[in-house]
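Dear Dr. H.,

I hope your travels went smoothly. While you were away I took the liberty of generating a structure for the chain from your last submission, since the lab meeting agenda had it listed for discussion. I wanted you to have the full record in hand beforehand rather than looking at slides cold. The sequence, exactly as received, is reproduced here:
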Amino acid sequence: MILATSGGLRAGRRTEWEFGALVHHAVELSGVHGRAPRLCTVGTATGDQAHHAGRIADAGRVAGFETTRLDLFPMPSVEDVEAHLLAQDVVWVTGGSVVNLLAVWRAHGLDAVFRRVWEAGVVLAGVSAGSLCWHVGGSTDSFGPQLRPVTDCLGLLPYGNAPHYDSEAQRRPLTHRLVADGTLPTSYCADNGVGLRYRGTEFVEAVTERPGQGAYVVRRAVDGTAVEERLEPRALPA
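The corresponding predicted structure, in token form, is as follows:
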């Protein structure tokens, strides 16, 4: 399973962050029961910032999860990266620069590792860069404020992707242009608070932790234009 999202964290009551319904849904998809879920966060896209990781660890404690992290700066934080990831129920990739994330992952052979982890049944999930990375590509601000295409993501899913579809004005028109001219294949897009669930390489459904938000699929029509269809998300329990 892959859950590609534009959400997952919310303001905490006693901690700065808590896990939102999308993270809890990723854990639900893993099917774990009878013990604390094991969730590993990967913060490569922001350079493994320690303060960020600490806030996520607090969120995991509040949720009752057994949380670990995989850092790659200044070196991998575990001896056997693949074995560590295979021992998880969920891997959650945080947002940031998807271009930098891909470069570092490939330097460490994680492109191949993540495919094997996915095929072994670990739920792969994440937000923003952690959504784009599983697809063929999409649009990114990794190069600067003006969004540009990225087309060399891991490609576990044979689609384009656009997170933050409702909150970043450049996302929709650029996604339409890239699908229309063939730069991107059929693309699944998510408003903030929405997750896209895939079983294998098949899109299954959209889910949301924020009522009223939408998901969308953008396809290339026979006349070479882009056609967008809204996919109504299923609301997750609060």
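Two observations you may find useful: The chain is about 25% helix and 30% strand. The radius of gyration is 17 Å.

With kind regards,
E. W.
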